Amino acid sequence: MCALYPRTEALPGIEDTDLDGFLRELRSEAPLLLRFGLFVAALVFHLTPLFTIGRPFPAFLLPKEQLDRHAARLGECQWYWIKQAIFLLKLACGLCWGRNPVVRERMGLAPYGPDSNGWRQK
Amino acid sequence: MRGTHVSFRSAVEPAFEAEADVVVVGSGAGGGAFASYLARQGLVVGVVEAGPWIEPEQYPHSVYGAMRDLMDDWGMQVTLGRAFWPIVQARVVGGTTVINSAICVRTPADVFDRWEREFGIGRGSGRGRLAERVWMHQEALEKELSAEEVPLEALGRSNALAMKGARALGYESHYMTRYVERCAGSGQCLQGCRKRRKRSVNVVWIPEIIERGGFIVSCAPVESVTFEGRRAVGVRGRFLHPKTRERGSSFQIRAKRAVVLAASPTKTPLILWQSGLRHPAIGRFFRAHPGTGVFGVYEHEVDHNIGATQGWSTLAFRDRLGIKLETLHIPLELVASRLAGGGRTLMERLARYRFFAMWCHSIRAESVGRIHRTFFGKGIVRYTLNKEDMRRLREGVYLVARTHFAAGAQSVIPGIGGMPFEIGPHEVERIREASLDPRAYVAILSHLFGGAVMGADPRSSVTDEGGRVRDCDGLLVVDASVIPSVLGVNPQHTIMALARCFAEELLGG
C-alpha cells in the first residue's frame, strides 16, 4: 500500500495517514470476499516484480527506486486479472488516503467529521 | 404495532409477528411510492427493509463509511461476464434514493410506444393509456418531492463548464431537475445528503407512512413470501444485524390484502424463487444503463467536488445514438482507482486533482443479461455488452471528451485500456479507434431493469401490466424488475410513477 501511494514533495503518502488503524477497521468490518480479494491483490503485488521490472524478488525485498518502478508498471498493466487486483488495492488505499484531513486540505476539500456508525433502533 | 418502527431483534428474543393490510418488501423508489400512496388511502402498510434506518444526520461522511453503512455488499457486487462491472445499490431504509442524485426525468413517449409494440403493455387497461397515467403521477410527484433545477449557487464549476462545452458544440443541454429542495451544493449526494435537502424516501415517505398508522421493519431481509393456496398472505425472514451480520430472531408479517415486492432487480427474482415460484421468465431480461467517466484536465482549478454532484445533463444524443451525458463528481477517495499507474506516477497524477472535472455518460444498452441463484442462495448477474453496445459506450467516451475540449480542457483522460493515459485535443479522434473489449473500460451499472418483467404474454412475462404476479393472487412486483426495456433516461421518476399506477390498480381492483 505504501508503495502504491508513496509520499511525494506535493502530497502526503498513505504512510502519513493512520494506515494501521484503517487496516484494523477493514479487517473487522469488511466482508470476507473483499478481504480475500485484497489479500490476493497484495500477493499479486509482491509476486510480480519479475514480470514488471525483470527482478526475481518479491516486491518487499526491492530497493525504493525499483519498488516505485514496479508499482508504476503494475498500475498500468492491461492484463485483466492483474488490472482488477490492482484496482481493488488502489481502491482500498484510496479509502484510507482520501479521508485523511491533511490530504483533503491539500486538495482544497473540507475535512470529514467522524462517521457515526449508528442507525435508528427505535 | 401501528405507527412504529421495529429494528434488529437478537436470536434470543421471541419471533416477531405483525399484520398489515399490505406488506411492501423494499423501501426504495418503487416500494416507497407504492406504500405512501396506499397509506394515504387509509390502508395499514407494513414496509420491510433489509437494511437499517439511518437518519441523514447519521450518514457517514467518508466514502468508506458510505460503502460500509449504506451500500449493498459494500458496493462490491459485480456482474459476471467478459468484464466485472460493479452494480451500485443501497441496503438501507430509503433504498438507492439515499445514495443517488435524485434525478427527475419524465418517461419519454417512445418508451411507452416500445412497451406497447413489443410487450403489449398499455393496450387495454381500461383506465386510459399507461403513458398518460404515468405522466400524471410524475407531475404530482414533482410537486410532492419539490423537484427543482439545480440553483445557480449550487452549480459549482464543473457543471458550468459542461454547459459551456455543450453550447460551444451547439447541442442542447440543461441543468438537472432533481428531487432536491434548495440544494446546498455540498457534493455529497452519493454518500447521502446530510443536509436533508434530497427528498429521498427515508426523509419524505417513511415518516409519513408511520404517521398514517403504518409500520417499518428494518434490518429484516425477507427470505420468502408465504402462501395459503394460491394467495400470498405474508412474508418471512430473519433479522440481520447491520454491523456484525449476526442473524437475529425470525419474523413473520401477515398481509390481509396483498404482498408487494420492491426489493430491486437483483433481489426480487430471488425472493420469487425462494417462495417456490417457477415462472420461466423469473431472472430473465435483465438490462441496464452501463456508463463510464472521463476526466478533463483544466488549466485552472475546477474543484469538481464542490457543487451539485450531478448538475448537468444532455439528452441530445439519446434518440439517435442511445447515449446520455452528464456530470458526476467523484469523491477523492475513488479518484485514484480511476487513474492508471502506481507509486510516484500515481501521486503526480493525483496532485492535479483540483484541475480535474469528471463527466460521464451512460448508454441505452440493448444487451440482455440474466440473474442466477447461487448454491448459497445469493444472486449473481450475468451480463456482457454486445459489440453494438460497446460501440455506443466508446462513442460516449468520445462525446464526453469532445465536450471537455470544447469547454477548454487542456487534455482528457479517456480511461480506456490500450490508449495513452492522457490525450490532447488533436488526438480526440483516436478514441473512435479504441478497443471494443469490455475489459478495457472501467464501467459501472447504475440503472438496473428486469428480472421479473411485465407484459401481455403470460409465457414471457412474470407479471401482467398491473404488476400482478402470474399464477398466484395478491402478489405484486412494483420496482424496476418489472420494466421490460431500458429507458435511456434516469429511471427513478419512472419507477415511482409506475408504482403509483400499480397502487391505483390494486385499490381499483
Protein described:
The complex is a heterodimer of chains A (122) and B (509). Chain A is globular, with a radius of gyration of 16 Å. Chain A has helices at 19-29, 32-47, 49-53, 64-76, 80-97, 101-106. By secondary structure, chain A is mainly α. The longest helix of chain A has 18 residues, at 80-97. Chain A has one domain (14-106). Chain A has 6 helices and no strands. In chain B, the strands form 4 sheets. In chain B, strands 1, 2, 3, 8, 9, 10, 11 and 20 form an 8-stranded mixed sheet that branches. In chain B, strands 6, 12, 13, 14, 15, 18 and 19 form a 7-stranded antiparallel sheet that branches. Chain B has a 3-stranded mixed sheet with strand order 4-17-16, with no helix packed on it. In chain B, a hairpin with a 5-residue loop joins strand 16 (370-373) and strand 17 (379-382). The mean pLDDT of chain B is 94. Chains A and B meet through helix 1, helix 2, helix 4 and helix 5 of A and helix 2, helix 9 and helix 10 of B.
